[in-house]
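Task: fold both queries, return tokens.
Query 1:
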Amino acid sequence: MSADEIAALFKPGPLWRVERGTIVADVAPTPAHCRVELPEGRVISVLGAAMPGTYVQVMTDGSIAFLVPPGRAGGSWSRTSGQSVGSGSQTTITWTTEGLDTHGFLTPTSGTVTIPAGMGGLYAITAQLDAAATLGGRCYGQVTAAGRIYRVPFTSPGEDLVSVSATVPLAAGDTISVAVFHASGSTIKWTGYLDVYRISY
């Protein structure tokens, strides 16, 4: 190997840097790219895809840019004291205890998670509901996310636990709630938990 070839191996490459910006609506569908507006107002094309209005981080050397995977965002909430739900009534579960909430998604004692400004993306949602008594008749657990309903029936008479999971693209301002319905003939108390985490922009 010549001296020039060795020198070429150790020649410094382009300097990479991280930029922060906001996804802006694209002119036409471009699944492999998105447009990011940087703080000074300049708009750049970036490899990757994300929802308009989402705050993102971009790695760039000035000619190529790509989205940096997002940091952890979301939260975990639970209800350890039983919430009374009457027979034949679909009822939204309210969450009383917060395990983690990275950006103010939900205030405990509320039943609604709201996606904060700039935090749009693909979210994994899991809710588990546990009845204090065995159930009969029609029973289901339900997650509603941005108006979409994800429902799981209890699998057999006498069952007292149900889990509902969904992976949903959500924008800032979209909401998530969890509800339960049963037709057991009496009022039953419910506990459970809810996990909502962004897994991608």
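Query 1 returned. Query 2:
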Amino acid sequence: MSLFIDFHVLQTVPPSCVNRDDTGSPKTAIYGGAVRARVSSQAWKHAMREEFKKLFEEQDLGVRTKYMTEKITRKVLNLAPDMDFDTVNEDIRKVLETKINNKKWFEFDDKKQTKALFFIGAKQIEAFANLYISGEKDLKKYKSALKSDGLCSVDIALFGRMAASDPTLNYDAASQVAHAISTHAVQNEYDYFTAVDDLQTEDNAGAGHLGTVEFNSSTLYRYATVNATELCDTLGKENVAETVKKFGQAFIRSMPTGKINTFANRTFPDTVYITLRSDQPVNLCGAFEKPVKRSENGYVEASKKALSDYSSDIYTRFTARPDVELSIDSCFGESVEVYPLTELLTELEKAVSAKLDEV
């Protein structure tokens, strides 16, 4: 039996530049033949990982870094303060770049940093450090510390890990996060701004700096899904329901921070719809393939209706209704249980736990 938890969120963002491209413009995408506002999945996952720091213990999380050698070294010195930093740091680096089966597991650059970012969990760091302190010589044990059952951090289990130099260190992601797109067509706008020189003399007219910043505003459709049964393999069945709850909280409440000091664009969602399914994840972005038209009532209510109508159509024509449906809104039909957000997340945890007991 499989268990997938789908999160559907509609969220209105005021004038903002949440996620920029290489030219500084808000990211966009063409969908249904219309230009949409877009926030990349990577930007939102980074925001979620920042939110995770408030929800999980430090020991349950990981870091993505090129400074892995230094990170492990500092853990060694934390556990064994009498050791010398430079000696330990060099020893750890040599272990990490040693060949196993004629292949290096990590490549280092001239600055003695790993050439690629590596996602490593706090428990994996501690296990590696303890092996070093104990004087362990078996390199395979060091390697297993980075992949052993029970040492995987929550964020690695959810978002996965890729080690290009050694695929045996990879973790498959138990979650997927879609690019957020606006339910309607957008047109980017420009803000022309000036900055005044506070010490400028009165006879010197004009601004100290001139510039422009590009922005848009939109009602976004956001989607993420979690494979709960896959999480059981990496985190243990007893930890999955709580993890899904905290994933949901982070997804719903987080916001990427692009230009946030300029626009103060932190908002709550307009609606949240969560489903538990045993067949497959179902992204409902097709509700907005035809862009929602603007009206005197704005975009939110029309977007809610489009999402509700489309989900009912999908459940009628292609698949059964979800096993469990939860929302903060009554617009999704009588079969959907409605709660305020805090209670919604509590009910989600209960529902996931009950479903996993059936597995």
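Both queries returned. Flag for query 2: The mean pLDDT is 94.
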